[in-house]
Request: fold
Amino acid sequence: MPVTDVTTDPEALTLRVIADFTVPVRRLWDAYTDARQIERFWGPPEYPAAFTRHDVYPGGVSNYCMTGPEGDRSCGYWRWVAVDEGRSFEVRDGFALDDGTPNTEMPEMLMIFEFTETALGSRLTTTTRFNSLEELEQLRAMGMMEGMSAAMSQIDAVVEDLESFAAGRGTELQLIGETQARVSRVIRGTVDQVWRAHTDPELLRRWQLGPDGWSMPVCEFGSEPGRSLRTEWENGENGERFGFVGTVVGSAPPRRLVTTERMVSPQDPDGAESPETLNEMTLTPVESGTLLAYLITYPDTDARAAVLETGMVDGMEAGYARLEAEVLAA
Reply:
């Protein structure tokens, strides 16, 4: 068990949990800031969590739901207040409804996560600050301390896994719910470099080329909210063309970009016959580079299946490999 101390201070309105680990601080930090990893331990074993958003910057948001063995769900959110890279972060932690909106009938708490080095590895001190003694007692009666201890008991297995989340594993796909898919990859480059590579048309033309023999003659891109986007690819041998159009609906450079997307073709130049997706790109610094996560929301399960069957993930991996080799390594 990593938890070594649990202290409740009714006067200060705090709950402090100390946990010790035999891994470096950076490894523990990455486990908390990588959605793929934190969802393996944030919920108790019988209530695994799924994170659909996990921003690691002030002003960002995290959304998650824990699902029980009978299908019952408990959802929550974080509103990121402060981040001291590799050392600490603060979030406002609250309960959410199934659609992710805050449940205003339940309390919102300030949580401070502090990561320090020890002789044997690392220590995480989590301090929860309540707004009143009544809230503290309410959450304690709901089993908050037992839940945190049960969740933390799973961290060792995650942080000791050095292969599943490292650079070099390629692009990975995870299906979430009935209509979402998350594509993740660690890219060997800084957050600023990866952001520019995804928003600068000149750089996009160098690596997002599609299959061999294709080029990108049209690339109208940017990150300003409201901006219209258009990319088109052309087969150099037979002139076949396809592309995508969309709009920037949200942007927090250089960490988050949210766009809509519809497929276009010469027969459907505006994408009117194509289902529209919502694409949420989040960039997070990790030890071996930048974790890129795309959360794609499809209109329905069939649309998701149809797109994934086109080999989308393999195509994305080919592009990311080219990005590392020909753009970031230059």
